[in-house]
Amino acid sequence: MSNVAGKAYAMNVVTPIRTWTTWLNKLIFRVALRLPATLKGLVTLSLIHYARWVIIGRDEFPRLSERQPRENLKYSYMLFFSNFNGSWDQYVDSFSFAIPSGLDMFWKWNVRYPRSIPLTPFHHYIKYNQVETNHYYNAYPLATSNDVKSAKAVKAALIAFDQQPADASDEAFMKRYDALLRGLQHDLGDMYPTPIVSMSAYQVEHREQWHARHAHDAAPAAAEREAEHVQ
């Protein structure tokens, strides 16, 4: 699946937004950046590598060449993209539980946005507007976001350890070294490959293919039954 690279999943959601409300949405984004408390629940989600909302005006889409016709769009669009660990369902549910009011504030004027709670309509909205990732490169495919944080902590501790004055004796060095290891014991560990990150996304695709295949097979049988009934 192109959405998945190692332990990470790439999500891209493009939703139409009423053009006359884009200035208000941009203002909300700026206020949220200046008031981190509004996104506190999002920051505490350790499964997220990155998340961003961007508004693209209906006349701001790039033209790859002069030969490309200009687009006459009715709506502007909001692009939400994120990289995270875990399943699709886990991520979307965590978003709803962590910042339900924040989601409703950001997507409030998006066309047919159902609100983040209850979960089922919100799931349908995200799934309907999600754009599959054709190519997803992950520099550290075996690392989760917590692994990256731990690696940064270990690096900073080792640099600080190396910059301390030389010890007077081997015993003093080992005492300091043992203290370093004790302080980093929760940040040291191996990274191993795991099963595909988003089995839920696979199951959704598999279920849709199953329904499409059985609907196609059921059509001739239904026609035969109808013909027999007419006879």
Summarize the structure.
The protein has 231 residues and is an alpha+beta fold. The chain is built from 8 helices and 4 strands, in the order E-E-H-H-E-E-H-H-H-H-H-H.
Strand-helix topology:
Blueprint: E1 4-5, E2 8-17, H1 22-34, H2 40-43, E3 48-56, E4 76-85, H3 88-98, H4 100-106, H5 119-129, H6 145-163, H7 170-184, H8 199-230
Antiparallel strand pairs: 1-2, 2-4, 3-4
Question: Can you give keywords for this protein?
Answer:
231 residues; alpha+beta; Alpha-Beta Plaits; 2 domains; 4-stranded antiparallel β-sheet; elongated
Describe this structure in words.
By secondary structure, the protein is of the alpha+beta class. The protein has two domains: 4-129, Alpha-Beta Plaits; 145-184. The protein is built from eight helices and four strands; from the N terminus they run ββααββαααααα. It has helices at residues 22-34, 40-43, 88-98, 100-106, 119-129, 145-163, 170-184, 199-230, and strands spanning 4-5, 8-17, 48-56, 76-85. It has a four-stranded antiparallel beta sheet, with helices on one face. A hairpin with a 2-residue loop joins strand 1 and strand 2. It is elongated. The mean pLDDT is 82.
Over all CA atoms, what is the radius of gyration?
Answer: 25 Å
- Helical content (DSSP H or I, runs of 4+): 40-55%
> Helix count, per DSSP?
8
CATH class of the largest domain: Alpha Beta
**Average pLDDT rating:** 82
Poorly predicted residue ranges: none
SSE sequence, one letter per element: EEHHEEHHHHHH
- Spatial ordering of strands, largest sheet: 1-2-4-3
- Indicate the CATH topology of the largest domain: Alpha-Beta Plaits
The 3D shape can be described as elongated
State which percent range the strand residues make up.
5-15%
- Major sheet description: 4 strands, antiparallel
User: How many angstroms separate the termini?
Assistant: 49 Å
Any guess at the CATH architecture of the largest domain? Answer: 2-Layer Sandwich
Query: Total number of β-strand segments?
Result: 4
Number of domains: 2
Judged by helices, strands and strand pairing, the structural class is: alpha+beta
